[in-house]
Amino acid sequence: MAAQKTEIAVGGVVLAAALGFVIYMGQVTGFAARSSGYDLTASFRSIEGVTVGTDVRLAGVKIGTVTDIALNPQTFRADATVTVLDGIALPDDTSIVIASEGLLGGNFVEVLPGGSPFNLEAGDEIEDTQGSVSLISLLLKFVSGGGDSE
Questions:
Q1: Which residues have C-beta within 8 Å of that of residue 96, sequence separation ≥ 6?
Q2: Cα separation of 143 and 16, whole Å?
Q3: Residues contacting 135, CB < 8 A, separation 6+
Q4: β partners of residue 126
Q5: Which of 10, 53, 122, 137 has its CA 20 to 30 A from that of 68?
Q6: CA pair distance 44, 66, nearest whole angstrom
Q7: How confident is the model at residue 21 (pLDDT cuts 50, 70, 90)?
Q8: What is the CA radius of gyration of the chain?
Q9: What pLDDT does residue 31 have?
Q10: What is the Cα–Cα distance from 89 to 23, expressed in whole angstroms?
Q11: pLDDT at position 135, please?
């Protein structure tokens, strides 16, 4: 009888852990209910390290997520769609940059607002973009003395 109660308790703990894992994965992948926001697009030369669900931040505060990434076959650039929370009005001369959390940290999308009196609207494209910088290519330039030293 005691063995049966132990098996039921262990089964309940395993089931609760599995349910918690499913809920966590839903939140991480963005599969959970989305909060309201508006979509903006941007085209990058390189979007390495960014995936659907990556944070979009302004001044270090999460204001949205990357919701779609696709290769543009005409320009050979990565077209990204980001969803920004409603209530955050970005000027139409805003810049968007792929930034890194540190040497070993992951990448995120950073929004740098401009000073224009006019704001971006749903579906607009952010023209001023800067793609990700490859750490390996920077190290190779440093090691090979890629500068013009005399």
A1: 42, 82, 109, 110, 111, 112, 126, 128, 129, 130
A2: 51
A3: 103
A4: 42
A5: 137
A6: 13
A7: confident
A8: 21
A9: 58
A10: 31
A11: 67
Q: Give the largest Cα separation in the chain, rounded.
A: 85
Between CA 77 and CA 2 the distance in angstroms is 64
Which amino acid type is present at position 140?
A: L
How is residue 101 written in tokens? 């959390």
Placement of tokens 């500068």 in the chain: 147
Residue 138, SS3? helix
* Cβ-based burial of 60 (10 A; exposed 0-12, middle 13-18, buried ≥19): exposed
Q: Is the four-CA dihedral 70, 74, 75, 81 of positive or negative sign?
A: negative
Give per-residue pLDDT as tens, 103-141: 667 788 999 998 888 888 888 888 888 877 666 676 777
Amino acid at 13: V
- Read off the tokens for 71: 């290769």
Q: Cβ atoms within 10 A of the Cβ of 69, count? A: 16
How far apart are the C-alpha atoms of 82 and 68, rounded to whole Å?
A: 7
**From residue 150, how far is each of 142, 146, 147 by CA, in Å?**
15, 12, 9
